[in-house]
Specification:
The chain has 92 residues and is mainly beta. It has one helix and six strands. The longest helix is centred in the C-terminal third of the chain and has 10 residues.
Length: 92
């Protein structure tokens, strides 16, 4: 499947059209093996996250690996958020 994807540029605040180089689906079955749309890493769908950056034409996010998800959070200005952490360092 070679769908055209949209990638949000956090600095320019606009979408870029990008060719899908990995075999990604928008809504794969939860127990299926998938590839991260950003880096191509293979994982189970249930171990993935919905991307803020990689979307279809109506804004629905594709699946990404935990490493790429943390990188997206940092790009969005949320570097204090860590997967699996119970609370933020900014909580009182």
């Amino acid at each position: 499947m070679n769908a055209t994807l949209r990638k949000w540029d956090f600095e320019k605040h606009k979408y870029e059209t990008v060719e899908n180089v990995y075999c990604v689906e928008l809504m794969p079955p939860i127990l299926s093996k998938i590839q991260c749309v950003n880096c191509g890493k293979e994982m189970l769908c249930g171990d993935s996250y919905t991307s803020y950056q990689w979307q279809d034409e109506i804004g629905f996010g594709y699946r990404i690996c935990p490493t790429c998800y943390e990188a997206e959070l940092a790009q969005r200005g949320m570097p204090w958020v860590r997967l699996g952490s119970q609370h933020s360092e900014y909580e009182s």
